[in-house]
Amino acid sequence: MRYPAFVKEEGRSLVVTFPACPGCVTQVDPGEDLAAQAAEALEGWLEATLLSGEVPPEEPSAARAPRGARLVWVDVPARLAVKVSLRRVRTDAGLSQAALGRRAGVTQQQIAKLEHPDANPSIDTLEVVARALGARLDVGLVAGGAGGRGGSARPRA
To answer: 109: alpha, beta or left, given left = phi > 0 and alpha = psi -120 to 50?
Structure first.
């Protein structure tokens, strides 16, 4: 999962905005790491959206930077991407947390915990919930991917 960001120079700083995520903006001063700052802003925004009970927006598959800006793609770490995906699939299915819990054989509180940014669910638990949603859990490793935080901002055409 990744979101496009527009990077524009404003004075000596860079301003990074995420068009799919209203209000998600950060300023990067000279000498600061653009990738890390953009990833931190996006993660914080997605976590706040989940905590407020809202459904994070779909990530666009394509984007075009406006004049005077450049486009970078910012990856969402897997631990957060799975929670965003779970919230989206559940709400797209028209299910409350309680209804999904009944289908999966767990409590509403357990579903709420799975959608919480601080949760660390097992793959087994995610598979049970995915089946209850009529979905499939897709987990994989990508060679040469970003290390550490997983929030690399990389230019893309």
So the answer is: alpha
